[in-house]
Design brief:
4 helices
Length: 147
């Protein structure tokens, strides 16, 4: 059973996102546990790339709202209306449609960005702790500061 707030990815459009979301969750768990650290320069480059992808996804979502989530008119007959409704549902309807999958992908990207921030925070904390320990060791080793 899926966790609450965990998006469900159904084939065909969303099926490819499921393993990515699962891997993002595993990385987030490692970051939250303090087992993932990222150098600030590496994190900065990674965040820049994630932001670029996120901007593309947001652009696609905006285009989808403008074009895909619109009523399609294939004539004023029963067949035309049904065809238009089905195509609109495929584009912007249930969770397996294009627009919801793009929105879910955007959420996965945001989760990755948050994970990178957490990993940098862990890196900084460990760096500060190591610096403090080094200063303490130097203080103890110095002739005027030792015990």
């Amino acid at each position: 059973m899926a966790e609450p707030n965990q998006p469900q990815f159904s084939a065909p459009l969303g099926g490819g996102l499921a393993p990515v979301a699962q891997q993002a969750k595993a990385v987030r768990t490692e970051a939250q546990a303090g087992r993932l650290t990222l150098d600030e320069d590496v994190a900065s480059r990674l965040l820049r790339e994630l932001n670029e992808v996120q901007a593309e996804v947001h652009g696609l979502i905006a285009k989808a709202h403008a074009g895909l989530d619109a009523s399609l008119h294939f004539g004023d007959s029963f067949v035309g209306r049904v065809l238009g409704e089905r195509l609109q549902q495929a584009a912007a309807g249930p969770d397996t449609a294009a627009l919801p999958v793009l929105q879910q992908f955007s959420e996965v990207l945001l989760e990755l960005e948050n994970t990178v921030h957490k990993a940098v925070e862990t890196y900084r904390t460990q760096d500060e702790d190591n610096a403090d320990a080094l200063l303490e060791a130097e203080r103890k080793a110095s002739p005027e500061g030792g015990y």
